[in-house]
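User: Fold this; tokens only.

Assistant: Input:
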Amino acid sequence: MKEQRSFVDNSKGCLFLVPTPIGNLEDMTFRAVNTLKDVDLVAAEDTRNTKNLLNHFEIPTELISFHEHNTAQRIPELIEKMNAGLKIAQVSDAGAPSISDPGKELVKAAIKADIAVVPLPGATASVTALIASGIAPQPFYFFGFLPRKGKERTEALSDLAQRQEATIVYESPYRVKKTIQDLITNFGAERQITLARELTKIHEAFLRGSLAQVAQYYEENDPKGEYVLIIAGKPEEAVAVESDDDLVSTVDKLIKQGQKPNKAIKEVANQNGLKKQDVYNLYHGIGEND
């Protein structure tokens, strides 16, 4: 094992992961523009879209296609070029490459070939939606696009419904109404959700409320634009706290079963949502009035 350093002289080339705007061209960073100008080649998910971006910023760098349908062919070519010393930037149509877009396979191949992989910060739809959602942003779980149908979709929804952290899901306008109904079935109608659409664009909008309210909204309004769904985590269930006598009895029972007193006290405290010190004091009679 060795540490791979990004900015050292090396006979090999380098793979730059360059985020591109998710709608607003002003979100392109100075560093991203300069990197795309400096590299020898840009590997793009769709060369037509990326060509428009490069033209806008007057970037003359040559393009090569790299998408889900030519991954197996392109990776050996790109690795060979970087082994020969070329610097390559990888971009998707919008946002960060590798996140719900092609790219992770090239990253793995570059790492295996001991080629430096340099990620640039920049636009990404998931965190942009999360911080404006009004739903507790930490911790969160990024899922991306749900499976479209069948057992995989059912299992994914069932698993997500049990998560206590906020969940981030991507969805198209053509499937968002069905997804809301599936979420109601699995999460319950009262689970809170925020739908963000057309992020960073002129028609950017947020719809916040319960799943039931969102479903009702879409009975009268048609979904438009690409969506990021921020789904609140599963609420913690209230813990039924035992009486003081029961708490002491449970600690005694665990000790008789072979547990050490401190461990038994900690376990009873956790089971009842109490502080360990409070159960300790109760068990040992500390603080009781004479």
